[in-house]
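Everyone, describe these C-alpha coordinates:
***
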Amino acid sequence: MVKNSNGKNAFNKKQELLKNFLSNNLKKITVKVFVWSVLLYASEKCCLTTEDILRLEAMEMWIWRRIEKINRTDRLSNEEMLQRVGEKRQLINHLRERQAKWIGHVMRGDTLLRYSLRKNKRKEATRKTKV
Protein backbone atom coordinates (compact mmCIF):
# COMPACT_ATOMS: atom_id res chain seq x y z
CA MET A 1 0.00 0.00 0.00
CA VAL A 2 1.26 3.43 -0.90
CA LYS A 3 1.03 6.09 1.79
CA ASN A 4 0.00 9.48 0.46
CA SER A 5 0.63 11.17 3.79
CA ASN A 6 4.39 10.84 3.33
CA GLY A 7 4.12 12.54 -0.06
CA LYS A 8 1.97 15.33 1.35
CA ASN A 9 4.45 15.88 4.17
CA ALA A 10 7.33 16.04 1.70
CA PHE A 11 5.41 18.52 -0.44
CA ASN A 12 4.47 20.70 2.53
CA LYS A 13 8.11 20.82 3.66
CA LYS A 14 9.04 22.33 0.29
CA GLN A 15 7.17 25.59 0.82
CA GLU A 16 9.24 27.31 -1.87
CA LEU A 17 7.17 25.40 -4.41
CA LEU A 18 4.27 27.67 -3.58
CA LYS A 19 6.24 30.88 -4.00
CA ASN A 20 5.97 32.86 -7.22
CA PHE A 21 9.67 33.54 -7.73
CA LEU A 22 10.34 30.03 -9.08
CA SER A 23 9.54 29.13 -12.67
CA ASN A 24 6.98 26.42 -13.37
CA ASN A 25 9.61 24.14 -14.93
CA LEU A 26 11.74 24.36 -11.80
CA LYS A 27 8.70 23.62 -9.65
CA LYS A 28 7.89 20.53 -11.74
CA ILE A 29 11.44 19.24 -11.51
CA THR A 30 11.50 19.79 -7.76
CA VAL A 31 8.24 17.87 -7.32
CA LYS A 32 9.49 14.96 -9.39
CA VAL A 33 12.79 14.78 -7.53
CA PHE A 34 11.79 15.41 -3.93
CA VAL A 35 8.11 14.59 -3.58
CA TRP A 36 7.74 11.63 -5.95
CA SER A 37 10.79 9.92 -4.49
CA VAL A 38 9.26 10.06 -1.00
CA LEU A 39 5.81 9.12 -2.27
CA LEU A 40 7.04 6.09 -4.21
CA TYR A 41 9.64 4.91 -1.71
CA ALA A 42 9.73 1.08 -1.73
CA SER A 43 6.44 0.93 -3.64
CA GLU A 44 8.00 -1.04 -6.51
CA LYS A 45 7.99 -4.10 -4.26
CA CYS A 46 4.28 -4.14 -3.50
CA CYS A 47 1.29 -5.02 -5.64
CA LEU A 48 -0.94 -2.08 -6.41
CA THR A 49 -4.67 -2.35 -6.08
CA THR A 50 -7.04 -0.19 -8.07
CA GLU A 51 -7.64 1.82 -4.90
CA ASP A 52 -3.89 2.51 -4.62
CA ILE A 53 -3.73 3.63 -8.23
CA LEU A 54 -6.69 5.97 -7.76
CA ARG A 55 -5.08 7.43 -4.63
CA LEU A 56 -1.80 8.01 -6.45
CA GLU A 57 -3.58 9.72 -9.33
CA ALA A 58 -5.49 11.90 -6.86
CA MET A 59 -2.23 12.75 -5.10
CA GLU A 60 -0.63 13.73 -8.40
CA MET A 61 -3.54 16.06 -9.20
CA TRP A 62 -3.46 17.49 -5.66
CA ILE A 63 0.21 18.39 -6.13
CA TRP A 64 -0.38 20.15 -9.47
CA ARG A 65 -3.37 22.03 -8.07
CA ARG A 66 -1.36 23.20 -5.07
CA ILE A 67 1.47 24.43 -7.29
CA GLU A 68 -0.93 26.37 -9.51
CA LYS A 69 -2.86 27.61 -6.43
CA ILE A 70 -6.16 26.30 -7.72
CA ASN A 71 -8.77 25.37 -5.17
CA ARG A 72 -10.87 22.22 -5.49
CA THR A 73 -14.01 24.34 -5.50
CA ASP A 74 -12.91 26.13 -8.69
CA ARG A 75 -14.48 23.28 -10.70
CA LEU A 76 -11.53 22.78 -13.04
CA SER A 77 -11.38 19.31 -14.59
CA ASN A 78 -8.25 17.17 -14.29
CA GLU A 79 -7.59 17.38 -18.04
CA GLU A 80 -7.80 21.17 -17.97
CA MET A 81 -5.50 21.21 -14.96
CA LEU A 82 -2.92 19.03 -16.70
CA GLN A 83 -3.06 21.26 -19.79
CA ARG A 84 -2.54 24.33 -17.64
CA VAL A 85 0.51 22.77 -15.99
CA GLY A 86 1.74 21.33 -19.29
CA GLU A 87 2.07 17.78 -17.97
CA LYS A 88 0.56 14.37 -18.53
CA ARG A 89 -0.24 11.82 -15.87
CA GLN A 90 3.17 10.35 -15.22
CA LEU A 91 3.24 9.09 -11.66
CA ILE A 92 1.75 5.64 -12.37
CA ASN A 93 3.96 5.17 -15.44
CA HIS A 94 6.99 6.15 -13.38
CA LEU A 95 5.99 3.59 -10.77
CA ARG A 96 5.56 0.86 -13.41
CA GLU A 97 9.07 1.62 -14.74
CA ARG A 98 10.47 1.30 -11.22
CA GLN A 99 8.68 -2.02 -10.79
CA ALA A 100 10.13 -3.34 -14.05
CA LYS A 101 13.63 -2.28 -13.01
CA TRP A 102 13.19 -3.95 -9.63
CA ILE A 103 12.05 -7.24 -11.19
CA GLY A 104 15.06 -7.12 -13.52
CA HIS A 105 17.32 -6.51 -10.54
CA VAL A 106 15.84 -9.48 -8.68
CA MET A 107 16.04 -11.79 -11.68
CA ARG A 108 19.76 -11.01 -12.19
CA GLY A 109 20.64 -11.98 -8.63
CA ASP A 110 20.89 -15.43 -7.13
CA THR A 111 18.33 -15.16 -4.35
CA LEU A 112 15.40 -17.05 -2.93
CA LEU A 113 13.01 -14.47 -4.39
CA ARG A 114 14.32 -15.19 -7.89
CA TYR A 115 13.82 -18.90 -7.34
CA SER A 116 10.24 -18.41 -6.15
CA LEU A 117 9.41 -16.12 -9.09
CA ARG A 118 10.71 -18.66 -11.57
CA LYS A 119 8.87 -21.47 -9.83
CA ASN A 120 5.57 -19.56 -10.03
CA LYS A 121 6.22 -18.80 -13.69
CA ARG A 122 6.67 -22.51 -14.45
CA LYS A 123 3.44 -23.38 -12.61
CA GLU A 124 1.51 -20.83 -14.68
CA ALA A 125 3.01 -22.18 -17.90
CA THR A 126 1.94 -25.74 -17.07
CA ARG A 127 -1.56 -24.56 -16.16
CA LYS A 128 -1.93 -22.85 -19.54
CA THR A 129 -0.78 -25.90 -21.50
CA LYS A 130 -3.14 -28.25 -19.62
CA VAL A 131 -6.19 -26.13 -20.43
In short: The chain has one domain: 4-130. The radius of gyration is 19 Å. Residues 50-68 form the longest helix (19 residues). DSSP finds six helices and no strands in the chain.
